[in-house]
Design goal:
Layout: E1 4-11, H1 14-44, H2 51-85, E2 89-96, H3 103-107
Antiparallel strand pairs: 1-2
Helix pairs in contact: 1-2
Length: about 110
Amino acid sequence: MFPVYRVVTRKRGVVGNLCKWSFIALNGLNLWWLWAYLEAAFTSAGRGMSALAGTGVSLGSGSGAVVAAFFWLIGEAGLGVLTFLTRSRMVVLIDTRRTGQPVAALDQGGAA
C-alpha cells in the first residue's frame, strides 16, 4: 500500500481576514504609540524645568503609559477573541505522494 499524506490547508473568509488584519494593525499602532509616548516623555523630562516640574512630568508620563497599555490590552482582548472565533476553516486534501491520484482511485484499483 502506498503511503497516504494528509495535507491541511486553511482559508479564512472575508470577516476572518478583516479581524486578523485589524488585530495585526492594532498591535502595530499601539506599539508605535507606546514607543513614541515613552520616547517623548524620557527625552523631554526635566529639560529646562524645576525639580518639582520634572517630577510631575515623569509621574504624568508613567501614568499615561499605563493608560496606553490598558487600552492596548482591552483592544487586544476584544480583537483576539474575534480573531480566534473567525479562524480559518480546515480544508483536508488526502493525496498519495507517489502517484498523485486520490486515495479513492487507489482503493478502486485505479493504480498499482
